[in-house]
Amino acid sequence: MSHAISPLASPFPALPAIAGATPRVARARYKEWDRCDLTYVELDENTAVAGVFTRNICCSSEVELGRLNVKQGRARALIVNAGNSNAFTGYRGREAVEQIMDQVAAHLGCAREQVFVSSTGVIGVPLPKDKAKEGVDNALTAAPCSWEDAANTIGTTDTFAKGATATAIVGGQTVTFSAIIKGSGMIAPDMATMLGYIFTDAAINPAYLQELLTKAANETFNCITVDSDTSTSDTVLAFATGRAGNTIINCEGCEGADAFAAALSDVCRQLAHLVVKDGEGAQKFIAVSVTGAVSDESARKIGMAIANSPLVKTAIAGEDANWGRIVMAVGKAGEPADRDKLSIGFGGVWQAKDGQPLPDYDEAPVAAHLKGQEISIEVDIGLGEGRATVWTCDLTHGYISINADYRS
Amino acid sequence: MSHAISPLASPFPALPAIAGATPRVARARYKEWDRCDLTYVELDENTAVAGVFTRNICCSSEVELGRLNVKQGRARALIVNAGNSNAFTGYRGREAVEQIMDQVAAHLGCAREQVFVSSTGVIGVPLPKDKAKEGVDNALTAAPCSWEDAANTIGTTDTFAKGATATAIVGGQTVTFSAIIKGSGMIAPDMATMLGYIFTDAAINPAYLQELLTKAANETFNCITVDSDTSTSDTVLAFATGRAGNTIINCEGCEGADAFAAALSDVCRQLAHLVVKDGEGAQKFIAVSVTGAVSDESARKIGMAIANSPLVKTAIAGEDANWGRIVMAVGKAGEPADRDKLSIGFGGVWQAKDGQPLPDYDEAPVAAHLKGQEISIEVDIGLGEGRATVWTCDLTHGYISINADYRS
């Protein structure tokens, strides 16, 4: 955590323990640093697992194996390596992951497929097997630690530790979520990746957990962008230990399913926002709300075109209500839009309506809004009922310094 | 031209006069500035015209009318307004363009459709009709000027005037091209747009000129990116006066068609490179060559994903041979690629082959190459015969300063 703490950082929340999920950390010394860099979470038998992974086709072996193994639905352990992403390392990288899976499976007496491994850090250097072996040995026998320790240990260029929690009532029973995430820019300098882990004591069918996680991810993790770049290792895993004692959640409409889904979605949104708030160089958190598109997906694409536009992001950094750049971004999104039906606002104040600037537009409240840390941009396409909100941060000198100047 | 001159600037070349195309400039005073900002080029009767325009669907009235009128194939005049893009201004903006077309058409005694108008500058402010009228009046009666004067007059945030020339032998006759362009970032702060104008004395059928211009633009203007943002007003027009006395070029394979096409393509490439070299904050010119893709179009898309990646562009700014970021960009391009067949090099030196870093890779020549101003990135996908080269610039503090800090 070499850079200044993000001005948008929040304190780490009090994350409850999750029965059946025990975190431990250790030192594998993947880099020359004096910190824990290997995280191990032991999970009770019958823990359900679901996962969403990067769409980047040059993904790491960790992602390939995770995507495959999540299908059998059960997990006994999670290992996270920080400091080396093991991406673009060919068969040697794959062997290192398989060695870790075997080592943990032997310790727990479980199937290798129930051990999930993630790695984050430098690309193109195979994960050193000897360091991994020693680190895993240490972690397997370490004392249990807090979720905050685990959140710090999975971090690389993150400037603050990130966690989220929620509860839901399922059939009269309270189920609890504790979740951690790392990420700061889609890829940080030679480091990589957003990695998120959600732990709950709820009992839930793994296929249904997967369905809910995919849906929640589409509305949260897939609606954030820092720099439009997609890591080779992005991973979010949800683990449900079943220890809360609720009647198992099996499908849509069954008791507590809605409450569980809402809490899961809430946790995902909290985690996604935290990653944006630690975006490289971020000074402002930006919510882009698009309404009136021809569909929700069209609204999301238009929102992402705005959120990914360097000119929009630098305008917000400059506290400039530059709606012309938003017009430009809407027009290049490749989605249905009509220049003469487009309306644009900042902080709830419309600046342009139906394709023309409002003659009586009052700049003062907009200028005040743009001086704050939480910025909202509203865009109405004027064509339909589709809507979406996406989140990003501004583009500042800090981003350039982190990504271009760090060698000096 | 308020910013420091680009370190990649070149001196304005000696552009020959083109028989039948006479430039003049005047002051319309669209902004509070002491410079000419209205350009008028009078064209001989029967001048052939072709054009390519922005794909941004929130385009200006100038683009809408130009796209429509280019179809009749003949031009008598070009008017370019600098300082106001007239984009996103509804019917009032359209009326201003039509007024200019009528005014020039009355003066020349030609059809209104033969008057082409472009505007570049602030978005969302209708072009003031009174200023336009007076500026056009002045320009119609001004003394002819040089192409360099015209290049300076169409510029907005450009840091240097940009021109290109070429010749071709068509049926024993020399035909000459003189061309000017403005652009610096796809949209500059509150200013906009790449506008390019190519003048030749060749005699050519307008439909065939359109075919050749579209093809040349696809390989040049559509292969550059500064910041991935697409202006609402981008326009390139080619005018052929027919005064060279060559046998008219009518179709592919006819005498001189290949030579003409090559010269046109050469001029387009020169102009496109000049825009990149004046990219906002640019310190380095980057050529990305992609080979081994499944098709040329696939290679172009992969190249653009690399050229648009903020992480790749900041790495080059930092003189860092960060091939991991190129792997990432290839993987997110959405085109066929195989991690284990991918090879990446800088300045002609392969750094990774077949999905793995080369163990005996020599960093010294790559480090030396990256210290230069002209950088090449080579990517071989290893799947087919598709190839493309795209051009961009690095992403520096200068870009942020120009686009975020300019209000201070």
From TrEMBL, chains A, B:
EC number(s) given by UniProt: 2.3.1.35, 2.3.1.1
InterPro entries found in the cross-reference section: Arg_biosynth_ArgJ (IPR002813), ArgJ-like_dom_sf (IPR016117), ArgJ_beta_C (IPR042195)
Annotated site, Involved in the stabilization of negative charge on the oxyanion by the formation of the oxyanion hole, chain positions: 120-121
Binding site for substrate: 156, 182, 193, 280, 403, 408
Record's keyword terms, sorted: Acyltransferase, Amino-acid biosynthesis, Arginine biosynthesis, Autocatalytic cleavage, Cytoplasm, Multifunctional enzyme, Transferase
Listed GO MF terms: L-glutamate N-acetyltransferase activity; L-glutamate N-acetyltransferase activity, acting on acetyl-L-ornithine as donor
Record: active site: 193
Highest taxon listed in the record's lineage: Bacteria
Pfam families xrefs: ArgJ (PF01960)
Localization, UniProt: Cytoplasm
GO-annotated cellular components: cytoplasm
Reaction equation(s) it catalyzes: N(2)-acetyl-L-ornithine + L-glutamate = N-acetyl-L-glutamate + L-ornithine; L-glutamate + acetyl-CoA = N-acetyl-L-glutamate + CoA + H(+)
Broad EC category: transferase
Residues the record marks as site: Cleavage: 192-193
The protein's role, per its UniProt record: Catalyzes two activities which are involved in the cyclic version of arginine biosynthesis: the synthesis of N-acetylglutamate from glutamate and acetyl-CoA as the acetyl donor, and of ornithine by transacetylation between N(2)-acetylornithine and glutamate.
HAMAP family in the record: ArgJ
Subunit structure as annotated in this protein's UniProt entry: Heterotetramer of two alpha and two beta chains.
Full protein name: Arginine biosynthesis bifunctional protein ArgJ
